[in-house]
Amino acid sequence: MQNESNSQHRADGGLSKVTTLIFAAAAGLSVANVYFAQPLLGSMARDFGIPPAAIGLVVTLTQLGYGLGLIFIVPLGDLVDRRHLVVGQGVLSVVALAVVAMARTEAILFAGMAAVGLLAVVVQVLVSFAATLATPTERGKAVGMVTSGVVIGILAARFVSGVLADLGDWRLVYLTSAALTLTMVSLLWRVLPRNVPPDSTDSYTATLRSIPVLFLTDRVLLVRGILALLIFAAFSAFWTALVLPLSTGPFGFSHTQIGLFGLVGMAGAVAAAGAGRLADRGLGQWTTGVSLALLLASWGLIALLPWSIPALLVGVVLLDLAVQAVHVSNQSIIFDRHPQARSRLVGGYMAFYSLGSAIGAIGATMAYAHAGWAGVSTLGTAISVAASVTWAFTRHWPVSIKQAGCAMCDGVASQFRKHPVSQGVRGP
After folding, report:
1. Residue 301 CB: number of other CB atoms within 10 A?
2. How far is CA 335 from CA 9, 23, 297, 399, in A?
3. Model pLDDT, residue 170
4. Which of 284, 300, 368, 400 could make a disulfide contact with 329, Cβ separation 3.0–4.6 Å?
């Protein structure tokens, strides 16, 4: 069994294409569990008698659970066997999905969704694992491929959940996901590499304390975190609110038809896979700026929803292309700055992502309740402007340790291991 697992990796120590694709597929399925609910909010609200203005709590609690997992679970990837961590989270996810499917009260539903979000952070363990296994010259490419799997999972989740809900009801979505997740866990147990030593010997407490230190002492990390918060607030605002106008007059689309919009967005996500290769060539800042301009432009088209579905579709592609490209560029940049702390880096970075998604979800449902689709479009535009301004004021900062001309950079990794809280790399 060990030889079977090890054979999945190249002789040069890098990730093979097959293994990278398995990582991407597993990450996509795992993150889909967080987003299955978005096209189902109307059905859930009717089933439990939850007011439309409050049903966004389903998404918000899931994202908050995800945020807690990023802080308290993902950093374990630096300390323990990642194979056991991934498989353990997968098994517990099966249980949480089954609880959601069988929920009969609002309290059980909300608790189950929070648990689903908490455990779905296995996605980020897989991303940091891929970054660790890939060679330095292909790290951005590997991260880009796995992250593309994540975004495709997010977008496909809406279509799949819509189809299953139309065939049965929203509970069928979570029962099906529980079965698929169990199958995924079995596959990962077979293919994940064994005997990969942890990146750190720090204690769990020291590891947790080091996360805010990293982001507070390295301003490039902090800026990338803020950009993640903003782009995913815009992303979540759009996708959370989209079901509300499309499911009512004059459209009256079914769950399946609404889910098809997610498949359109996949085109943008796939197109953005090359962002990692651009980051490998030192073009991360340039890619970020162009992508944020596309994000802002997308909202001009999205705002035309009441009058033009074709314009909306183009806006969906641009929005997903922009968000994915910035996200991949962000991760490539932060992994390059502190390679000895990748799991805690991705945990801290994605905490910004989760907070942004939660803000976008509840903000969009409130904006729609008070001002309709125009309110959602205004919210998304304002968030996109904030992201562009943040990038514009920091675009001249070197994003690479080497570009910053940091003396003694070769000793950063060993110093951080010895003093995880007191040591940090201050941005340029």
Report:
1. 20
2. 21, 18, 29, 11
3. 92
4. 284
What is the sign of the dihedral through the CA atoms of 185, 189, 190 and 193? positive
Span 239-273, pLDDT tens digits: 888 888 888 778 888 777 877 887 887 777 676 66
Is 423 part of a structural domain of the chain? no
Domain count, the chain: 1
Q: Where are the alpha helices (DSSP H) in 247-308?
A: 255-271, 275-280, 284-302
Q: How far, in Å, CA of 260 to CA of 37, rounded? A: 15
- pTM higher than the cut 0.85: no
Q: Is 424 among the domain residues?
A: no
Phi first, then psi: give them for residue 197, nearest 5 degrees.
Answer: -65, 145
Alpha-carbon span 90 to 181, nearest angstrom: 7
Instruction: Indicate whether 412 pLDDT > 60.
Output: no
Query: Is residue 428 situated within a structural domain?
Result: no
CATH number at residue 265: 1.20.1250.20
Structure-token pair, residue 296: 């802002």
Maximum distance among all Cα pairs of the chain, rounded to whole angstroms: 64
3-state SS of the chain? CHHHHHCCECCCCCECHHHHHHHHHHHHHHHHHHHCCHHHHHHHHHHHCCCCCCCCHHHHHHHHHHHHHHHHCHHHHHCCCHHHHHHHHHHHHHHHHHHHHCCCCHHHHHHHHHHHHHHCCHHHHHHHHHHHHCCHHHHHHHHHHHHHHHHHHHHHHHHHHHHHHHHCCHHHHHHHHHHHHHHHHHHHHHHCCCCCCCCCCCCHHHHHHHHHHHHHHCHHHHHHHHHHHHHHHHHHHHHHHHHHHHCCCCCCCCHHHHHHHHHHHHHHHHHHHHHHHHHHCCCHHHHHHHHHHHHHHHHHHHCCCCCCHHHHHHHHHHHHHHHHHHHHHHHHHHHHHCHHHHHHHHHHHHHHHHHHHHHHHHHHHHHHHHHHHHHHHHHHHHHHHHHHHHHHHHCCCCCCCCCCCCCCHHHHHHHHHHCCCCCCCCCC
Query: Which three-class secondary structure state does DSSP give residue 9?
Result: strand
CA 136 to CA 404: how far, in whole Å?
19
Question: Which carries the bigger pLDDT value, residue 189 or residue 426?
Answer: 189
Q: Domain range holding 122?
A: 2-418
Closest CA to 305 of 313, 317, 294: 313
Tens-place pLDDT, residues 67-82: 888 889 988 888 888 8
Peptide bond into 250 cis (omega under 30): yes
